[in-house]
Design a protein that fits this description.
With about 130 residues, the chain is mainly α. The protein contains eight helices and no strands. The longest helix is centred in the N-terminal third of the chain and has 20 residues.
């Protein structure tokens, strides 16, 4: 299916945003590919705008990059950009841990979530 020049420009811009967000979080294309269940070459094509990202993959991309879908679409700024300018001091350690967990492959994220539920006593309530 042929896409319009406006649609192509949208996917190129989205790919550039994804690449920028991924790099800001020190994630490799391979790590993002693992989270999406695709190859590194596919992520490279998404970021270049030469391949359209499936709509079903966008929530996973947003979660992995710890941003909203609106940020991916370019409709709002990333919250961290504003907060970082106003915030003083280093990022709290718990926030660093959450960000590190968000970068893990989905299976490892589920393992960490289960472990946290058990430690916090929620495992017995389920």
């Amino acid at each position: 299916m042929t896409i319009s020049s406006d649609e192509r420009a949208f996917f190129v811009a989205m790919g550039e945003r994804i690449a920028s967000l991924r790099k800001a979080r020190n994630l490799t294309q391979t790590q993002l590919a693992e989270a999406l269940g695709v190859t590194q070459q596919t992520v490279q094509a998404y970021e270049a705008g030469s391949r359209r990202i499936p709509v079903s993959a966008l929530p996973v991309v947003a979660r992995t990059l710890s941003v909203s879908l609106m940020v991916l679409f370019g409709e709002e700024q990333e919250k961290g950009e504003k907060a970082t300018a106003r915030k003083r001091g280093p990022v709290p350690q718990w926030q660093q841990h959450i960000e590190a967990i968000a970068r893990l492959p989905r299976s490892r994220q589920q393992f960490v979530a289960e472990m946290l539920r058990n430690v916090l006593g929620e495992g017995a309530a389920r």
